[in-house]
From TrEMBL:
Keyword terms, alphabetized: Cell membrane, Membrane, Transmembrane, Transmembrane helix, Transport
Subcellular location: Cell membrane
CDD domains the record matches: TM_PBP2
Protein name: Peptide/nickel transport system permease protein
The family this protein is said to belong to: Belongs to the binding-protein-dependent transport system permease family.
Residues covered by the ABC transmembrane type-1 domain: 98-307
Mode of membrane association: Multi-pass membrane protein
Transmembrane intervals: 9-30, 104-126, 138-159, 179-200, 238-264, 284-310
One Pfam family, short name: BPD_transp_1
Main location, first listed in the record: membrane
Length: 317
């Protein structure tokens, strides 16, 4: 178990190094001078002295190998540089906004787990019934509708027409917990709808497969109650592929939050990312991209550890 854990951590570290290297090299693969591209505006060529100053500030005037070593050294210290727009430390900006994005993702994943797994299990147990047909059709519909359309419809219906919920905004949890959760509700529904549909479909498929296995028939032949067979033998063995999809989709949700945060004015990572892209703020873009990539790797590592908890065969590997 410990050896498998260390191996998975080593793989994750190796993947993180590859991502960091790709992001670093991306700047130098862009055609032309990166500093000149950052300073260009409206097709007007920037002043050569300003370009030279920015190249020196970014360290682009030094050899590539030296830049790479300094880049890695900065990451190990948690130093992502400073924004080119306001000279604000990138790491501090990310530390301020990242918890809000993670809260949104965690809330969406919680909805997917609480609704998708039980609904998928019921649809599989009562395959072909009314619930199965309605739930499967609804899941297909949720997957077909883009997240920004769902967000806009939620605002139009619940906020503007029925006036049941606020259209958007943010209030810190410590300042007003009730209002914070109220403002969190609509963006959570918008970002969690697709994951809920995916988890439902994967759970249904996995439970149907588990129900046909020999060990389930053996458990029934031993006289175990249907509820015990379903919980301990069917659902537990069916959760491994569900966790795989959940981990991958949660990583995908990191990208989907950009639209959701924009629509509902939720101050997560999307706002500085969009502004950084528009302003060609290279350090901010790189810092957010590396943060999102690192979170994706951590989520998948956590899923690997959960596999070992659910499946003894993986612990023994």
């Amino acid at each position: 178990m410990i050896a498998a854990l260390l191996r998975r951590i080593g793989i994750s570290i190796g993947l993180a190094w590859i991502v960091v290297t790709i992001v670093f090299l991306a700047l130098h693969m862009v055609p032309g001078d990166p500093a000149e591209l950052l300073l260009s505006s409206g097709g007007v060529a920037p002043d050569p002295a300003t370009v030279a100053e920015l190249r020196e500030k970014l360290g682009l005037d030094r050899p590539l190998a030296e830049q790479y070593v300094d880049f890695l050294a900065g990451l190990t210290r948690g130093d992502l540089g400073a924004s080119l727009v306001d000279d604000y430390p990138v790491a501090q900006e990310i530390a301020l906004r990242l918890p809000r994005t993670l809260e949104l993702i965690a809330a969406g994943a919680l909805i997917a787990i609480v609704i998708g797994i039980p609904a998928g299990t019921c649809a599989a147990v009562y395959r072909g019934g009314a619930f199965d047909r309605v739930a499967s059709g609804l899941a297909a519909l949720l997957l077909a509708i883009p997240v920004f359309v769902v967000g806009t419809l939620l605002i139009l219906l619940l906020a503007q027409t029925l006036r049941l919920m606020p259209a958007g905004g943010f209030v810190p949890l410590a300042q007003n917990p009730a209002q914070h959760l109220t403002l969190l509700a609509l963006p959570t529904i918008a970002i969690g709808k697709g994951l809920t549909a995916v988890v439902f479909r994967m759970t249904r498929s996995s439970v149907l497969d588990a129900l046909s296995r020999d060990y389930v028939r053996t458990a029934r032949a031993k006289g175990l109650s249907p509820a015990r067979v379903l919980v301990h033998h069917v659902v537990r063995n069916a959760l491994t592929p569900v966790l795989t999809v959940l981990g991958l989709q949660m990583g995908t949700m990191l990208g989907g939050t950009v639209l959701v945060e924009y629509v509902f004015n939720w101050p997560g990572l999307s706002t500085p990312l969009l502004h950084a892209v528009e302003a060609r703020d290279y350090p901010m873009v790189v810092g957010i991209v590396l943060t999102v990539s690192g979170l994706f790797l951590l989520i998948n590592l956590a899923m690997d550890l959960l596999y070992a908890v659910l499946d003894p065969r993986i612990r023994a590997a």
